[in-house]
């Protein structure tokens, strides 16, 4: 088990040198990992409850238009037809070339075992824990997967972003990175810090990793951090990327995946569409489309051909739209899959129907599949793990069912 440096310990030990808190790459989360397989895996948590019915629109389903008088989509409303029954939200139109090449797909009517309370916090915790009960485990399913693989190093997996990535939390070594954490030091300052920290068993490795991650990215950054430097010229303040959405994260992820890293996980916010869903969801989907295309362009054709991108959310949303042009917390939702390693060009899953008798609790899309099962089959194909280990250790208590053949 590798010891980790807590935020409090990092700040306490760095205060003597006048380091700004925001200069630490450990205050926001981005995780990566390297492993003895060649396929790359990107797991994206879509926080807020993405409305799968608006993303992958069942315009061919009886009753769909009546249930969503204002939000109903389909080819006549600018959506891209997928298969004569489903259509893709207009904001994801930039991804249609991937669909045509079989590099974009979806799994519909899926959910975690979470039911009824519909809390974002509990729903996301269960999604990242990969269990049916929050009390079963303390680590994340992606980290437990890494624990089954001998020889995994910290640079195998990365957790990227602004919040804790519980899906990668656990005993397996994982590296973190944040787009705001750019550590810039003069050679003299680096040497001084090395001398001061060289005998510290926790801070010295943390400093080494911080410098490595900072040097490993060439992203353009703008804007000054509030608070300035320490007045001695030892360390320049970090600078935050402005107006670029998830592009810096996707660029950094692609850079790592071109090398030894095999797993990257990060989250995208903005999916809670209680009001004005037409505008809010379009913005979130545009961000997702840009993230996927940035990943594809960044890794290059060869690596993209062996990459699997899996985007998942804590729950879907109500079938009926509400009175404020939005939808409320629901149950069944959808997964977004991309990458050359996937069998795209199709909507996977068993469609439950939209008549009242087919809905969950007469309000939500009925889940006909477990989002964990789809993730487990992808892990089996990516890392070559056996089914027993996946059902027992990675997703405790899961029955994976039949192989949906999500990978090529």
Automatic annotation (TrEMBL):
Signal peptide: 1-23
Chain segments annotated as transmembrane: none
InterPro entries registered for this protein in UniProt: DUF1501 (IPR010869), TAT_signal (IPR006311)
Keywords: Signal
PROSITE patterns, per the entry: TAT (PS51318)
A Pfam match: DUF1501
Protein name (database record): DUF1501 domain-containing protein
Organism lineage: Bacteria, Pseudomonadati, Pseudomonadota, Alphaproteobacteria, Rhodobacterales
